[in-house]
Amino acid sequence: MHSFGYRLNGLLTFSLTILAIMCAITSLSDNLNTPSPSAEIQIMNINWFQKQPQGNDEVSLTMNISADLQSLFTWNTKQLFIFVAAEYETPKNSLNQVSLWDAIIPAKEHAKFWIHTSNKYRFVDQGNNLRGKEFNLTLHWHVMPKTGKMFADKIVLTGYSFPEEYR
Amino acid sequence: MTSFRSLRFHMDWQGQKLAEQIMQMMLLVSAVIAFVAGYVLGSFQMMMIVYAGGVTLTALITVPNWPFFNHHPLNWLDPSEAEKHPKPQVTVSSKKKGTKK
């Protein structure tokens, strides 16, 4: 601590080291949170279900998505990224995941919601396997922190299926 | 205004030790208070603000050369006094010559 500059340098480096430790402890405190999210997705309507010229099936559907994800928020949460994916099995792929809709929830107040929407992204199969196929709709979420580790989880909703014939 | 003029000079040894101890203690205490405040209030921003305030306060207290860091000054010998007392002569060691004898 021999001079002004020496002390200033020591203060800055020590304060930044302590800041890094504070951020690590903050991230660890997220593990204390026990979330209890819930969600429900209803398919209101299959708008159309066609086979594209290239041979792939495409479907457009309107969904009613309602969820309560407020318990996922902590003091260290910046935002929540959520998306709905349709999951099904085909002879070619053991798991197909097609993302239909996503959103960013910036604050806890907005985490309890319902939305009536058609699929934001096109639902196209690799092939023409969808007729009569059963599929799951999964709501995935990524809890993006202000500092530290990101947590990701999902809710799987089963029991959906495609019509037997094209419309 | 004498306190501002004394900022030009370095701290004495005891002052340096005191400054280092105060700095480390204050930064750790600021961090603990900031974390507790942020966690209890559920506000990350509050933790950052309290910590920044603590760092600034620590900087103001420990970095400039305040007078209370100079309570144990070392009194170097005045040059005119030094001349009155000659430096001790460094004798060349004659042990090796002695064993040869």
Automatic annotation (TrEMBL), chain A:
Reported function: Essential component of the signal peptidase complex (SPC) which catalyzes the cleavage of N-terminal signal sequences from nascent proteins as they are translocated into the lumen of the endoplasmic reticulum. Essential for the SPC catalytic activity, possibly by stabilizing and positioning the active center of the complex close to the lumenal surface.
N-terminal signal peptide: 1-24
Pfam families: SPC22
Protein name (record): Signal peptidase complex subunit 3
Entry similarity comment: Belongs to the SPCS3 family.
Membrane topology summary: Single-pass type II membrane protein
Species for this entry: Hibiscus sabdariffa
UniProt KW keywords: Endoplasmic reticulum, Membrane, Signal, Signal-anchor, Transmembrane, Transmembrane helix
UniProt keyword Transmembrane helix present: yes
Compartments it resides in: Endoplasmic reticulum membrane
From TrEMBL, chain B:
Pfam families named in the record: SPC12
Recorded superkingdom: Eukaryota
Transmembrane segment boundaries: 21-42, 48-69
Topology class, membrane: Multi-pass membrane protein
Subcellular location: Endoplasmic reticulum membrane
Chief location bin: endoplasmic reticulum
InterPro entries (UniProt xref): Spc1/SPCS1 (IPR009542)
PANTHER family on file: MICROSOMAL SIGNAL PEPTIDASE 12 KDA SUBUNIT, SIGNAL PEPTIDASE COMPLEX SUBUNIT 1
Role this protein plays: Component of the signal peptidase complex (SPC) which catalyzes the cleavage of N-terminal signal sequences from nascent proteins as they are translocated into the lumen of the endoplasmic reticulum. Dispensable for SPC enzymatic activity.
Stated name of the protein: Signal peptidase complex subunit 1
Organism: Hibiscus sabdariffa
